[in-house]
Amino acid sequence: MRILRLGFVLAFSSGFAAIVIYITGVSNLNALSVLSEDELEALQALQTDFGKCVRANGLGLEAVSGEGYCQVSINFPKDTIPKWKDPKTGEVEGLSYSFNLCEAVATWEQVRNSTTILTKEFIDALPNGWTDYAWKRINKGVHLNNCENRTLCMEKLSLVLPETPPYIPRQFGRCAVIGNSGDLLNTRFGKEIDAYDAVVRENGAPVQNYTDYVGTKSTFRLLNRGSAKALDKVVELDESRKEALIIKTTVHDIMNQMIREVPIHNPVYLMLGASFGSAAKGTGLKALEFALSICDSVDMYGFTVDPGYKEWTRYFSESRQGHTPLHGRAYYQMMECLGLIRIHSPMRPDPNRVVKWVPSHNVISAATSASEKLLRRAGAGSSDPLRACSIIRRGIKRKTTAIPSPRKAAIVHQKLVKGTTMYPLEHHPGHGQLCIARPYDPSR
Ligand SMILES: *[C@@H]1O[C@H](CO)[C@@H](O)[C@H](O)[C@H]1NC(C)=O
Ligand SMILES: *[C@@H]1O[C@H](CO)[C@@H](O)[C@H](O)[C@H]1NC(C)=O
Ligand SMILES: *[C@@H]1O[C@H](CO)[C@@H](O)[C@H](O)[C@H]1NC(C)=O
Question: Ligand 1: which residue has its CA nearest to atom 12?
Answer without folding.
Answer: 110
